[in-house]
Write a structure and sequence with these properties.
About 50% of the residues lie in helices and about 20% in strands. It is an alpha+beta fold.
Length: about 475
């Protein structure tokens, strides 16, 4: 941007010196030299070239140097072009004023008629231009913002990231990667939503329909619990907390709206909704929540009671990897008889960090927060346990103190499994020691990989097995 105006300025300066030397050689005193139109043109062009050099310096050292590299701000091309045109017009006006004594007022009057005719012929273009100026100066959005444009001229609202703003058009990069060109006048004459202002989490929602005879409090606990767990994934936001609302009731169904929050800079709405819907679909399958009846059909009411019967408890246990991969059908039945169904209100503490273990819990409905307290007293949320998850298994199986505090986020329904329940299984089938230790070691490996810690499968498995045998042997001896 600087090189060509600089070369042009040098060439024009050389032409000016050459022309002046020709005029001086042809001059015969005492006569004055007549006005030379070519020299005047060269002088005007030289001033315009100097203005172009100044514009190039501004672009290089301010737009791209200071704002882009140091402050990481993209200046819309429209603003840069406006400055360029203003500098060139100033240079041109100074040139005419210097060489022809033509004032700015004269220039404006001479161009007024032309501007009037062009204004009528280029009305849409001028609307886009002034709309672009308005967008840039009021700062309604800038490059990098995520916006939604609503207009009757589009089949549906356009959601995308602002990737450019020029004289006539705002460029949106849509979720699927396409680039959409929206005339600036369309944006200033229609409502838009800027999802990047203020820079905070933005709400999304999905809907789930459930058969009307299922108690609402149970559905809300299950959906909310799984959503609490889902919003721990990258791009989703745990605060503000998600919520579940009943938005519609029909003869066959209750419609639940699940509201949650995401970071528009990290994940777009479609993948964010997909993450939550996948989690909700999984809990619906696990808990056999009935869908609305879509045709007239005489059926028995679904089993909606809690606590579970033996069959429901066995199904819940089979969803837990610790038992699914280690117990046979008979052992699963024996454990289901010993389990106790429990209900915890929101805010109840299922287990507290540092305390000895007395039981572990298979969560069947709702969600619980898993948190760690550091030595300096700070509390850090590390995970959410929801339907199908097991809480407290490591400390119960090895005798170690509780490594975390587990607190109910919603009403939580769970199956309590105590030390004596596990001891009965181990006494009747000692081979379960090795099966349990192998599964617990795999779980420990997953945690270490997430924390980027070194892990030795064989060493950890042997250590867990040794601690289990020592712990349950002491228990047996005390009994």
């Amino acid at each position: 941007m600087i090189l060509w105006p600089f070369i042009a300025a040098i060439a024009l300066l050389a032409a000016r010196i050459w022309r002046e030397s020709l005029i001086a050689a042809a001059q015969h005193p005492p006569h004055a030299a007549p006005p030379d139109l070519l020299l005047k043109a060269i002088n005007i062009a030289l001033i315009v070239a100097i203005a172009a050099i100044i514009d190039g310096l501004i672009r290089r050292y301010y737009w791209h140097g200071y704002l882009k590299r140091r402050r990481n701000l993209d200046t819309p091309s429209l603003i840069q072009d406006i400055v360029t045109v203003a500098l060139l017009l100033i240079g041109l006006s100074l040139g005419f004023w210097w060489q022809s004594d033509l004032t700015l007022t004269g220039i404006a009057a001479a161009s007024g008629a032309v501007a009037f005719v062009l204004g009528i012929a280029l009305q849409p273009v001028i609307q886009d231009l002034f709309s672009g100026l308005s967008i840039n100066f009021d700062g309604s959005y800038v490059i990098g913002d995520w916006i939604t444009v609503y207009s009757d001229q589009m089949p549906e609202p356009a959601y995308g990231r602002v990737s450019g703003i020029n004289w006539r058009t705002t460029f949106l990069t849509l979720e699927d990667g396409r680039r959409m060109m929206v005339p600036n006048r369309l944006i200033t004459s229609n409502p838009i939503a800027n999802h990047s202002r203020e820079p905070a989490a933005k709400q999304l929602s999905v809907e789930i329909e459930v058969e009307i005879r299922v108690p609402q409090h149970r559905v809300i606990d299950m959906l909310l619990g799984e959503t609490f767990k889902a919003v721990r994934k990258p791009g989703l936001v745990a605060r503000p907390e998600p919520e579940v609302l009943v938005t519609k009731i029909t003869a066959d169904a209750v419609v639940y709206e699940i509201r949650f929050y995401h970071d528009p800079a990290r994940i777009t709405p479609a993948p964010a909704k997909s993450e939550v819907l996948r989690a909700l679909h999984e809990v619906i399958q696990q808990t056999d929540l009935p869908s609305p009846v879509t045709q007239v059909e005489l059926t028995q009411p679904p089993n909606l009671e809690f606590p579970f019967g033996t069959e429901q408890i066995v199904q819940a246990l089979r969803r837990v990897p610790l038992f699914k991969d280690s117990l046979n059908d008979q052992q699963m039945q024996e454990l289901s008889i010993e389990c106790r169904a429990m209900t915890f209100p929101p805010g109840a503490v299922l287990m507290r960090q540092g305390e000895p273990a007395s039981a572990m819990f298979v969560i069947t409905e709702g969600a619980a927060d898993v948190s760690l307290t550091t030595n300096d007293g700070e509390v850090h949320d590390v995970a959410v346990s929801a339907s199908g998850d097991l809480a407290g298994e490591m400390s119960l199986m090895t005798g170690a103190p509780r490594s975390a505090t587990v607190t109910a986020l919603t009403r939580v329904k769970a199956l309590e499994i105590t030390k004596s329940d596990i001891k009965i299984l181990l006494d009747s089938a000692p081979e379960l020691y090795e099966r349990f230790s192998a599964i617990l070691a795999r779980r420990q490996r997953e945690l270490d990989e997430m924390a980027q810690r070194h892990f030795d499968q064989k060493t950890v498995e042997t250590d867990i097995l040794t601690r289990m045998k020592a712990f349950f042997s002491r228990q047996l001896g005390l009994g």
